[in-house]
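User: tokens in, sequence out, please.
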């Protein structure tokens, strides 16, 4: 199967799953105590590198009694910046289990959401899992950012504002300027956890990021066919699986979109349909209508307005590619998570412990909590 056909098939299947999930109600939390403690780690693993492995190992070292649950996005295989992942979530989950995770569950469809929307979904997932510990790698060595981490460890909410970070408690400015994307995720997550009234005091495990490990550099070398040059940044298991997926034409996916669906949607959707897509603005819609038909994504990019986020254009491409409307996204978020979808597990013993936690803590439609 050609890679573009493979990607098109993923998008179509995930649209079906998204709309099926959207017919379900939210899981009901009936208890907030795990019999087996849970380390809940949101990481994209695109691909799983030595930095991810270091963070996982540190969290497990600190809490060996806990189940390490990797929350791996998700439907449509697009990250929070709107860019495709290097491999499918099922293969990323497989790697997580091979390298030490106990359970891997599916996270939200980040690529078709704004940062506040997917951060809220991640927080709701952590709440449903009743996360006892939340590991996060961080980059900044600014002493003021350490103050922010201290705030979060005390269970206090912080919020990102344009070019500053403030305390949600007293609106005090804690840090001026912009954060690296990974550090921004920490702040955004703390804000969302505060909004849903999840007590995260002393739950975060902040791990300094390893130097000389770059996901961007890794993906560049993989695109150039230099997988064997990555043994200083990737575990051998990641290298082996990448090679296997490449041989099947199932990787690297990060340079490929469902171009046929994307161009068909942008050239055929009515003005009303375009305006009803998630994240899209009226100026972009007017540009599309006046300049279409489009024969290439490069031409389309020029019609998408530049927002505050430098990732906006890629997010809009993902929304156009998938064709999911804003009312669908809002309903999905309001009912998230509808179920816990298990992508992988270490062995039957840990699966039983995890399912026991879910059974005691959650109630779902028709008694179904996990899949």
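Assistant: Sequence out:
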């Amino acid at each position: 199967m050609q890679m573009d056909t493979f990607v098109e098939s993923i998008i179509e299947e995930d649209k079906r799953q998204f709309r099926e999930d959207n017919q379900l109600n939210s899981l009901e939390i009936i208890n907030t105590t795990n019999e087996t403690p849970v380390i809940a780690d949101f990481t994209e693993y695109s691909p799983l590198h030595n930095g991810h492995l270091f963070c996982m190992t540190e969290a497990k070292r600190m809490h060996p009694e806990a189940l390490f649950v990797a929350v791996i996005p998700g439907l449509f295989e697009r990250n929070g910046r709107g860019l495709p992942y290097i491999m499918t979530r099922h293969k990323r989950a497989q790697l997580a289990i091979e390298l030490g995770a106990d359970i891997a569950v599916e996270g939200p469809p980040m690529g078709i959401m704004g940062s506040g929307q997917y951060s809220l979904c991640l927080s709701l997932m952590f709440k449903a899992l009743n996360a006892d510990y939340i590991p996060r790698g961080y980059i900044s060595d600014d002493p003021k950012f350490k103050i922010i981490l201290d705030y979060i460890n005390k269970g206090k909410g912080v919020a990102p504002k344009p070019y500053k970070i403030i305390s949600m408690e007293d609106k005090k400015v804690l840090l001026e300027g912009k954060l690296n994307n990974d550090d921004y995720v920490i702040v955004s997550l703390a804000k969302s956890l505060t909004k849903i009234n999840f007590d995260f005091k002393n739950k975060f495990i902040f791990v300094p990021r390893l130097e000389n490990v770059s996901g961007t550099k890794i993906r560049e070398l993989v695109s150039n066919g230099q997988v064997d040059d990555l043994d200083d940044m990737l575990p051998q298991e990641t290298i082996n699986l990448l090679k296997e997926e490449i041989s099947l034409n199932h990787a690297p996916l990060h340079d490929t979109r469902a171009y046929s669906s994307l161009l068909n949607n942008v050239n055929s959707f009515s003005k009303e349909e375009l305006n009803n897509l998630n994240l899209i603005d009226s100026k972009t819609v007017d540009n599309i209508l006046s300049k279409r038909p489009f024969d290439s994504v490069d031409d389309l990019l020029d019609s998408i307005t530049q927002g505050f986020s430098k990732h906006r254009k890629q997010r809009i491409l993902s929304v156009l590619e998938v064709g999911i409307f804003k009312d669908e996204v809002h309903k999905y978020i309001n009912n998230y998570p509808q179920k816990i979808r298990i992508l992988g597990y270490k062995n039957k013993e840990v699966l039983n412990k995890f399912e026991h936690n879910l059974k005691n803590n959650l109630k779902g439609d028709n008694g179904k909590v996990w899949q």
